[in-house]
Amino acid sequence: MLERKAHHDRDDLAGEHKFGDAGQVLLLVVFLVVWIGDSFIRHYTDFLARWVPVYGRITAGALILILSGYLAKSGLSIVFDDTRVHTGVIREGIFGRVRHPVYLGSLLFYLGLTVITFSIASAVVLLLAILFYSYIASYEERLLIEKFGDEYRKYRGEVPRWFPLW
User: Fold this and answer.
1) Per-run averaged pLDDT (10 residues), the chain, 166 residues
2) Which one, of 5, 16, 6, lies nearest residue 143 by Cα?
3) CA nearest to 74, candidates 60, 92, 86, 89
């Protein structure tokens, strides 16, 4: 049996990695320190930004950040707003397009900020974030298989982990 952190004794949730929340906060702090430090203070690795017009970087980054917020808000509201009567696999809304919309929203947040400043140091932290979220998603998928079995296996075969089916 996998060790997991429960959410307020809700039977409709499978759980998550016990260090998932702390890891996400730590990753966010590290990313922001690196991004702010490199992009606005030291400028060690943001030299590529001069090759792309600022309005282009800001527009692209803003669009990515908007998508990030949409995915995170949609995913969180579906999972945490109501306790579902049926404790099966969630397929409604954004979960019909991507299995981990909240984690994808987090990754797009890092990507959006990185695109705005073209900081290579931030891109390195983004790569670490991708590894972290892939690990956490894999762990949680094992919990979901443990809880929902073939129902989740079928869902996993039909809905991609990261790249939504629009």
Assistant:
1) 50 76 96 98 95 97 98 90 71 92 97 98 98 96 94 95 80
2) 16
3) 92
Instruction: Find the angle CA(21)-CA(25)-CA(27) to the nearest 5 degrees.
Output: 115
How many angstroms separate the first and last alpha carbons of the chain? Answer: 35
Q: pTM of the predicted model, to two decimals?
A: 0.89
Look up residue 39 and give its DSSP letter: I
122 by Cβ neighbours in 10 Å (0-12 / 13-18 / 19+) ranks as buried
Coil, helix or strand at residue 14: coil
Residues in the chain: 166
Q: Check residue 73 and give left, alpha or beta (phi > 0: left; psi -120 to 50: alpha).
A: alpha
